[in-house]
């Protein structure tokens, strides 16, 4: 016995938005990674090598790989959760900035320091530079998502068309 499942156009668009978010997350991640590669809030320590510390390394390449993996996940999640609202540039950039700030709060202020045995929710040169990096991620990821959506012809817009 065969059964038919009907899916709303909004739900059907989630995989497309997730794919667009993956690309946007990598674009935002590259911009953020550049920021973290040149930012040294601690003497002689680039932020990207601090990311490598999540796996017990100080290697910048390891930091980039970890960082881009996280950016890919964050982009997919952005697309899946917010893609229907981020198809035009202005809302996408605003959502991206808020999303980047949320990742900063959860990731840089809580998860990363907790995993590295450092105090959580602290404000210092590292966390302030990290906020700038996360805002760069959000700005670029949001803008890239809107551009990709426009190139995709808004086939999955909220109107379902």
What can you tell me about this protein's structure?
70% of the residues lie in helices and 0% in strands. The chain has helices spanning 9-12, 14-38, 47-52, 60-82, 89-115, 125-151. It is elongated.
Which percent range describes the beta-strand content? under 5%
Strands, count:
0
Mind telling me the C-alpha Rg?
17 Å
In sequence order, what are the helices and strands, one letter per element?
Answer: HHHHHH
- Which blocks of ≥5 consecutive residues have pLDDT under 50? 156-161
Task: Describe the sheet with the most strands.
Answer: none
Overall geometric form: elongated
**Helix content percent band:** 55-70%
Note the gap between the termini.
Answer: 31 Å
Q: Write down the overall mean pLDDT.
A: 91
Number of helices: 6
A few lines on this structure:
The protein is mostly helical.
What's the topology here?
Layout: H1 9-12, H2 14-38, H3 47-52, H4 60-82, H5 89-115, H6 125-151
Helix pairs in contact: 2-4, 2-6, 5-6
Entry keywords:
161 residues; mainly alpha; elongated; disordered C terminus
